[in-house]
Each structure stands twice: as C-alpha cells, then as structure tokens.
Specification:
The chain has 257 residues and is an alpha+beta fold. It is 32% helix and 10% strand. Strands 1-3-2 form a three-stranded antiparallel beta sheet, with helices on both faces. Its EC number is 2.1.1.37.
Length: 257
C-alpha cells in the first residue's frame, strides 16, 4: 500500500497464496480493497490455476488487479489458454532421458499427471524442500522422489523402479521457465528463485490483459503463450461498513503477502 500511495501507478497487480481468499482472511482482504479505494483505485481478486495456462503443475494463486478509478470496467480476466496442459512426464521427458535412462518411457507413463505446487523451501531448515508433507505422496505417485534435488538425470543403468529426484532445470520447467533462463546464486538460492516465482505464463497472461486496458492494444494471448513456451471468487465489492483505517490502526500499511 505504501508503494501504491507513493508511486500512484496506473495499474496494480499483486499475487499471493490462495489462503488470502479464505474466510478467515476476509476482513484483512476487504481492508486492502478499501485502502485501495481510499487511494483512488478499483480492484478485484481472483484465483487462477496453472494448468489453465499450460503449466504442468497444480499451482493456484490469488491475484489482485487494480486500476485508477474509472477504467476497471475495461479489464477482463484472461480466459484459460490450455485445454490440455502437458503432464509431468511429457514436460520433463527429454530432461529425464538426457543420460540414456533405459526405463524413461515407463517413467513417463507413470508421471501422467500434474505436479503438486512446488514450494519455496524452509527458511528454518535452510535446505531445499520440494514438497510439504501432505503432498509428498502425490509426488511419489508421479514417480518422483520429493526429497532434496538431483544434480543430474538418471543414468542408463538406473533400475526400472528408480524414483528420480528432480534437477533444478526440471523444477524450472515445471514452473514454466524457458530452458535458457539464467538463474543466479547458490543452488539453494536458485531453487528459491524457481519455487517462489509467479509462473511466467500466468504473469504474462495477466500482464497482457492489463496492457490492453492501458493502451487499447489487442493481444492474441494464445499466440503469445505459444511464442513464450518452447513446448507446447471475485471479491471486488467492499461493504460500506469496512473502514480502511479502523480506530485500532497502528500506522502499519497492510500487505498482500
């Protein structure tokens, strides 16, 4: 909110975990909208899902889009672009086969589904955690070992029942990054850059929808998505009784994250 107040952008886009739209966060969420209204912005929340934008991952994000008052009505949320997003096996096949694993075709058949949400690692543990405990079994059902990460694809002699770990390159592809995207820092830092990112295809779809409002430029989102990839609760109404600056306000700006 502080940046919005100081910079006064024409448009605002923020993303968060879907928990932001849970009933327990209703008042905090409405106060964010009320605060934006007080700053001269109309805004809407919505949940978007990764597979709808070609992502082989069940990643769902809560998105807030806002504009200076008077032009929000021009904005349309991007429609789903992918009828059938690639499965984990389809998305990672060439990377998993890179060292000649003899049983990679069987692994591909097993990995016939979407990945659970890749999480950003535990600051407390200081290591790489691919999955929360509740989603570890989902990874295993896809033939993936969710513990830590691999430095390379399985070699030719890996057994039929081998359950490979993902390399950083594989994780990046599941997040929708191009293969030539340059990550920086240590392996832990690279992992967190991947896991905490808003997937490029989802960000692009929203960004182009915002661009259309600001410029009138019509964009073929499906065409743009194909160009980007090498492979192929609406809560806008704020009740009048929601005070953006309640009497117990301590001066701290509200955050979406």
């Amino acid at each position: 909110m502080k940046l919005i107040r100081e910079l006064k952008p024409k448009a605002v886009m923020l993303e968060n975990v879907t928990g932001a739209l849970q009933a327990s966060n209703a008042m905090h969420r409405l106060r964010i909208l009320a605060r934006m209204a007080a700053l001269g912005y109309d805004a809407e929340w919505r949940i978007l899902s990764g597979p709808d934008f070609g992502l082989p991952q069940k990643r769902r994000r809560a998105i807030l889009v806002g504009f200076r008052r008077g032009i929000m009505h021009r904005f349309s949320w991007p429609e789903p672009l992918a009828k059938n997003a690639p499965t984990v096996g389809e998305a990672l096949y060439d990377l998993m086969a890179a060292k000649g694993w003899a049983h990679v075709d069987e692994w591909k058949e097993r990995a016939n589904g979407y990945a659970p949400t890749i999480i950003g690692g535990s600051q407390k543990k200081g290591g790489i955690d691919l999955a929360q405990p509740k989603s570890r079994e989902s990874w295993r059902e896809l033939g993936v070992d969710p513990g830590h990460y691999a430095k390379a694809a399985p070699d030719r002699d890996a057994p039929r029942d081998h359950m490979p770990k993902l390399t950083l390159e594989m994780m990046a592809r599941l997040q929708g990054f191009l293969d030539d995207w340059q990550l920086q820092g240590s392996n832990l830092q690279k992992f967190r850059q991947i896991a905490n990112a808003f997937p490029p295809a989802m960000a692009q779809a929203i960004g182009l929808s915002i661009l259309r409002v600001l410029t009138g430029y019509k964009v073929d989102l499906e065409k743009e998505q194909k160009r980007l990839h090498r492979k192929s609760l609406n809560l806008k109404a704020v009740p009048d009784n929601v005070d953006p600056y309640p009497s117990d306000w301590d001066g701290e700006e509200l955050t979406v994250g």
